Amino acid sequence: MVHVLETGFEILSTENPHGKPMVKGYNIINGQLTSSSDGATFTSINPAILADTLGEFPLSTKADVNAALDAAHAAFPGWAATPAPTRGQIIGNMGRLLMEHKDAIVALETREIGKTLKESAGSVQEAIDTCHFFQSEGRRLYGQTVNSELPDKELFTYRRPLGVCGIINACNFPAAVPFWKMIPAIMCGNTCVWKSPQDAPLLSFALARIMHESGLPDGVINLVHGKGSTTGQYLVDAVDEGRVNKISFTGSTAVGKMIGEVCGRNLVSASLELGGKNPLLVMPSANIDNAVEGAYWGGFGTAGQRCTSLGNLILHKDIYDEFMEKFMAKVKSTTIGDSLHQEGVLYGPMLSEKYAKDFLIGVEMCNASGARQIWGKGRISNDNKPENFLGDATEGVFMWPHVFDNVTEGMECFNEEVFGPAVTICKANDFEHGLHLANASPYGLSSAIYTNDRLEAYRFKIGIKAGMTGINNSTTGAEAHLPFGGVKGSGNGTRESGIWVIEAYSYWHAVNDELSGKLQLAQMDVEEIELVEADVDYSALG
Ligand code: UN1
Ligand 1 pocket check: which of 113, 271, 310, 476 to mutate, most ligand atoms within 8 Å of Cβ? Predict the structure, then answer.
């Protein structure tokens, strides 16, 4: 076996139509490059140019996942005993190396999942910001000294690592989200088995390589590639086998519930970041141009493939027509294409063929639920393309922007996430109705209101049930040091990012140190102070 740092990237061919390399990818288990135990592989394909195969990766088996878990367990005691500031230094090195290689990583992210270069740069920057934040957290990771109720006794709290964490992320933020999870995990002293997203294995492989170059000891982060339904499932099954102490998952609500059940019956902590049907309410006092801009970006930026993307656009009836005229003008002029080859693109292809297929099912569902489709014609082809589509549509998997109006509360499309470029629009009679609609879906991830009435903004802020709220801002764009996560169907209340995520990767250990040399009983041997009642007539004062 070869150590990951003894090699660069093994190029299988440069024969594809764009002269880009096709790489042989590996799992990284205990720092070693490994293939799957049965030799099975899968490929990663550029969704903007389907003929561009990025590489071949192990389709990891149960035995591979077990080997990764063995490595994570073996590495745990040494890593947990490493001083937290030293762990922080390694994390700082990761941030610096990511900065050094940012352009290459950004181009790779765009090639692998089709996000625009600008957005890939945002995702990589979010990973860098996370490293910088947690580098110094390694010098804090504070516990407390607490006063005892007994003399000659001290009380302390310490943060302790949980053990081996299973990390499963989606491919839409393939740099930011695994860093959101693994950087705090390892900062707290845990070790990880990371199941890379099926549609972003090369980027994950490159990131894991950078982690090792940063001085991370072997076995602290172990990377396994594969499908969610096999490799990911083996990792979740290992919770039942007592081999995993934490699962952190970003993905669909259905899979999240399944993982939550497995973790729940084993009393294992789970961080679950799930779907959203994020509402954005526009009120008459809003700056309408600004609101149009925010709704347009929230709905169609990233081709609508963020968990924070706009779902239900709720327009007050008094500004409905004005808003729609401006909004639709923008939607109709949307520039779509491959940002590696075209300038000024708002969004690129779907993340992969699978996401395209699921999106079209979502579009059908919107129509079947009674909404009116006022814009969008499914998958873009050379005979069926919007005015500002750039390039050759047959090369990749691109979608029209879709807009549905006449949407009401009872409809399935009001309640279900459509992961892709589609916005569902409802009309609100007044603020109360708008807030009601914003709360009426089963989800509660992100939310937004556009208003210039401060009281309305305040009432929205306290009345909305969501993990995140934008005031005069779109539903997307959380920063790397604020708590990220949802309520209701969007998650189980755990948070990523900032100081809050530390709760998810550590437990509190309370220690008492009895210095008196004798057994003192809490609550029972505590000195009781008697009241000293003086004979004062307080009523005489009035
Ligand atoms: C996601 O889609 O899973 O807030 C993450 C945002 C980004 C992160 C999205 N910073 O839109």
Answer: 476
Q: What is the pLDDT of residues 25-55, one digit of tens each?
A: 999 999 999 999 999 999 999 999 999 999 9
pLDDT tens string 327-380? 999 999 999 999 999 999 999 999 999 999 999 999 999 999 999 999 999 999
Q: Domain containing 291 — which CATH number?
A: 3.40.309.10
The Cβ-side half-sphere exposure at 103, using a 13 Å CA radius, reads 1
CA–CA distance, 276 with 444 (Å, rounded to integer): 6
Q: Are residues 198 and 70 in the same domain?
A: yes
Burial 224-247 (b: 16+ CB within 10 A, else e): bbbebebbbbbbbebbeeebbbbb
Do 196 and 221 fall within a single domain? yes
Q: 359: domain range?
A: 278-480
Specify the pLDDT at position 438.
98
Angle between the N-to-C axes of helices 117-137 and 176-187, in degrees from 0 to 180, rounded to the nearest 10: 10
Atom of ligand 1 nearest to the CA of 480: 10
Residue 496 phi/psi, 5-degree rounding, is: -105, 160
Cα(480) to ligand 1 centroid in Å equals 10
pTM, rounded to two decimals = 0.96
Residue type at position 426: C
pLDDT (0 to 100) of residue 277:
98
Between the CA of 476 and the centroid of ligand 1 the distance, in Å, is 6
- Beta carbons of 272 and 256 less than 8 angstroms apart: yes
DSSP 104-163: HHHHHHHHHH---HHHHHHHHHHHHHHHHHHHHHTTT---EEEE-SSTTEEEEEEEEE-S
Nearest CA to ligand 1 atom 3: 307
Q: What is the pLDDT of residue 16?
A: 73
Return the CATH number at 26: 3.40.605.10
How far away, in angstroms, is 126 Cα from ligand 1 center?
10
pLDDT tens digits for range 391-448:
999 999 999 999 999 999 999 999 999 999 999 999 999 999 999 999 999 999 999 9
